[in-house]
Amino acid sequence: xxxxxxxxxxxxxxxxxxxxxxxxxxxxxxxxxxxxxxxxxxxxxxxxxxxxxxxxxxxxxxxxxxxxxxxxxxxxxxxxxxxxxxxxxxxxxxxxxxxxxxxxxxxxxxxxxxxxxxxxxxxxxxxxxxxxxxxxxxxxxxxxxxxxxxxxxxxxxxxxx
Length: 161
Prior knowledge:
five-stranded mixed beta sheet, alpha+beta, single chain, CATH 3.30.1330.40, 7 strands
């Protein structure tokens, strides 16, 4: 994203929508929250955690509705941005979002995974403008870690340092 693009830098856009990057959620197993290699950052899957607490549990389509799950996916994306920024020299060190994968713990007949993961995608577009548009997969799962309803990971291109 060009900082001269309408709306300014990703950090300015994030602030304009009333959000700040949270602290990076510590891993719950043997992995890193994000890894930078070459011109890219890969994040681990991020859960809908705020201040160390999982916001909801259960299956989407049974225990959690689509709108709530989309809001949870938005929280996951914000956590993924925090992880990516931690190894990219800050949020403004991220040039563009390349790929998002959203995992949705789904009730057996639930088929609206794409609408759930839109919560993550829409946040990334708000923050990065056109550079936030990305390739994406929205995958239904039987269960996710800690019985979370949704998990999001991303790949981002970083600016030259």
